[in-house]
Amino acid sequence: MIRHFDEELKALRKKLLNMAALVESMIDKATKALEKRKPGLIEEVFIEENEVNGNHMEVDDICLKLIALHQPTAVDLRLITSAMKINAELERIGDQAINISENTRHFFNYPGKVELLYIPQMAEITQTMVKDSIGAFVRKDAKLANEVLLKDDEVDQLKQKVFKKLITHMTQDTSSIEGLIYLMFISHNLEKIADHTTNIAEDVVFLVSGKDIRHHPKDSHNP
User: In the chain, what's the furthest Cα-to-Cα distance?
Assistant: First the structure.
């Protein structure tokens, strides 16, 4: 029974890794569609969303069966409940990638040539955050989880720079507002992805150390 339980936990970790890889791919394709003006990539994002939604339900089902059938100890129960919360955050990240895709579609209707500013950099950081947060969960690595938390500050700062530059551009050329507003939305979507990934990192810190760092000043995130 113990060996069977361990195999199921291993399968759960693998499922979450697969789901994280999918949402990374969704972010990558959504932002590349924007950078390279390739609408075809947007359709691929929507296809991958279906996979993410299917995985979301499967992971929850695995977790509930592990709890019901094995009555896990406190340590294992904490891992399983963390997996369920992380699963929900990954699904929400996928939703934000969909929002980026939809905003990109609207942006394509804007005929002007516009600099994307720090948006590609924000996308690169958020993809790294997703990968590292799940790596931290699988390896129970609180140090890596804390590094993810620090990257959230970088994304917040880049978003503020994007907003300031876009507002300046809009005030100088009011005809650009309709198009540029969608870049604002996209930078906000990327910030939300960073926020969801931060939640995953916080869950990892709790899983490893038992320390709940939610709703605390960011200085307290350092181990």
Answer: 69
How many domains does the chain fold into?
1
Q: Per-residue pLDDT tens for 25-81?
A: 999 999 999 999 999 999 999 999 999 999 999 999 999 999 998 889 888 999 999
Mean pLDDT of 152-163: 96
Other C-beta atoms closer than 10 Å to the C-beta of 143 total 12
Residue 178 sits in which domain range? 2-221
Q: What is the 3-state secondary structure (H, E, C) of 150-195?
A: HHHHHHHHHHHHHHHHHHHHHHHCHHHHHHHHHHHHHHHHHHHHHH
Residue 119, pLDDT > 80, answer yes
CATH for 217: 1.20.58.220
Evaluate whether 125 touches 187 at the Cβ level (below 8 Å).
Answer: no
**How does DSSP assign 74-124, residue by residue?**
HHHHHHHHHHHHHHHHHHHHHHHHHHHHHHHHHHHT--S----TTHHHHHH
Three-state DSSP class for residue 64: helix
Cα-Cα-Cα-Cα torsion 216, 147, 51, 156, nearest 10 degrees, comes to 60
Across 187-198, b (16+ Cβ under 10 Å) vs e yields bbbbbbbbbbbb
